[in-house]
Amino acid sequence: MLKLIPATDRHHAAPVQWLNSYFLFSFADYYDPDNSEFGPLRVFNDDTIQGNSGFPQHPHSEMEIVTLVLDGELVHTDTAGNKATIKKGEVQRMTAGTGLAHSETNGTDKAAHIYQLWFLPNQKGLSPSYEQKDVDFLDKKNELVPLVSGQKVLEDVVYMNSNSTIYWCNLSADKTVTFKTFPIRSTFIYVKEGTLYINGVDIGPNDQVRSTDENVLEIRASKDAQFILIDLPSSEANF
Fold it and tell me: What are the residue boundaries of the Pirin N-terminal domain, all occurrences included (predicted)?
C-alpha cells in the first residue's frame, strides 16, 4: 500500500525569525496521534536556518539523530567533546544514548538547508557517540546512494543504531530506479524537488510517500528530481 501525503499537509513552524521548519511528524507544539512515527522514524524536519543564528545548546537522550546538509553549513558542538563543521553534501549521526547536549549554529551569512531525522534506537543505554562523513550524495546521478545505515554490510556509509537505511537519489527526467523490499519492511520517500511516478502514483515537490507491504517500488522521474528514501522495519521487534 502506498500512502501519499501532499506537501500541504506538512506542519509549518517558524517559532523564531531565523528558523523556517516543516515537520513531517509530530514535533514540538505540533501533535497528531495518528502521525507520531513511521516504524523507528520518529522525527523528520525540513529546516532552513538563517545565517549567524542557530539552535543553542539543548539536551537529548535515547535517540539516533541524523542531519543531512543540503545547502550551507552548520557548526556542531556537544558535551561529549565533539566539535565539527558539517558542510553541504555531508552527513552526521549523533547517538544521544544515555544523554548529552549539543548546539547547531550557522556562523555564515548564507542560509543553511538541512533535513534532520530522529530514529528510535535498537537498544537503550548506549554511550553517546558521533560520526560525520562526506558522502558526496548531491552529485551522484541516477542511483540510490546509501548515506546512513544500521546494516554493517554496507560500506562508506555513516553507521546508526537502527535497522534502517537512508538513501539519496538525484534522478534525471525519464530515468527509473527500482527499490526491492519485503512485506516486513516499510519505505518512506520525501521529494526535495522535481516530480516522480511511483507504482502508479504521481509525487511532487515536498510530497511524501509511506509504503507498506510492497515488494518492489518502481520510481521514475517525470522531471529531474531529488529525493530521500528510507528503508525501515515494520515491526518494533526489528527496530
Answer: 16-118
